[in-house]
Amino acid sequence: MPHYEPWNAERASQIIAQHRHQEGATLPILHALQETFGCVPEAAVPLIAEALNLSRAEIHGTVTFYHDFREEPPGRRVLKLCRAESCQAAGGDALAARAEEKLGVEMGGTTADRRVTLEAVYCLGLCHSSPAALLDHDKVYGMLDERKLDALLKEAQA
Amino acid sequence: MSERMYISRDSGALCVGAEDVTNAFRKAAEKRNLGLEIVRTGSRGLYWLEPLVEVETPRGRVGYGPVGAGDVESLLDQGEKHPLCLGLVEEIPWLKKQTRLTFARCGIVDPRSLDDYKRHKGYAGLTKALQVGPEATVEEVINSGLRGRGGAGFPTGIKWRTVAQTPPQQKYIVCNADEGDSGTFADRMIMEGDPFVLIEGMTIAGIAVGATYGYIYIRSEYPHSIEAMEIAISKAREGGMLGRGIAGSKYDFDMEVRAGAGAYVCGEETSLLESLEGKRGEVRAKPPLPAHIGLFAKPTVINNVLSLATVPIIMSDGGAYYRDFGMGKSRGTMPIQLAGNIKHGGLYETAFGITLGELVDDIGGGTRSGRPVRAVQVGGPLGAYFPRELFDTPFDYEAFTARDGLIGHGGIVVFDDTVDMAKQARFAMEFCAIESCGKCTPCRIGSARGVELVDKIVNGENRAENLIVLEDLCNTMKFGSLCALGGFTPYPVMSALNHFPEDFGAERKRLVAAE
Question: Nearest CB to A31: which of B259, B427, B434?
Answer without folding.
Answer: B259
